[in-house]
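Troubleshooting log. The previous structure file for this entry was overwritten by mistake, so regenerating from the original sequence record. Sequence copied from the archived sheet and checked twice against the printout by T.R.
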Amino acid sequence: MFNLSTLEQEQVKSARILYYDFFNGFFVFELLDGRLQVALEQLEILLCAPLNEVAGESMEMLKTELENNGIANFKEEFSRLFALPFGEKQVGMHLSHYYENCIGAESLLKMRTLLKKSDVRVETSNFKETEEHLGFLFGFMRHLLESGNEELAEEVFLFIQDAYYGLIAEIKARKDARLYLSLALILESFIEFESTIYR
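Regenerated output below.
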């Protein structure tokens, strides 16, 4: 990873884990309710060294929103963008949506195969989605980095990165996206950074 010392490599890894957990908390609906304090603490840390100016401005906006209104507007916007079937075009949250233009296709089978190489299994009692859900995959990447499974993390990232660019594009296309537009801009900076690690 670049020409970094062992300490610097550990610091970069810690930052990457933080980013994956940050996105996991906002892109899995079931996690939103308990996320306020954690998200504020994460933003404080991320704002110390944002990846670029756009990401920094987006983080500031999210921090202000959380301080002033809590998580309520995130839940409302999440439902509107990702869950409700009326209004503007629903934003896809599954790999198959971006790769096969449907849900539950080859991408799901590929992710199940990759998941079997790890010790992670989807907890179906509190998470209703499948292994190809983009919110779940943020958490999976965090786990792989935390457990030191860099080889599998690279394989997973290289498979999923284009879907994240698709997610970003679909959020940007929604005129009613505000909070998730800021999250998409931060995510765009992060995925670009991650791609430099795995090229």
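Residues 75 and 196 are 32 Å apart (CA to CA). Archived copy saved in two places this time.
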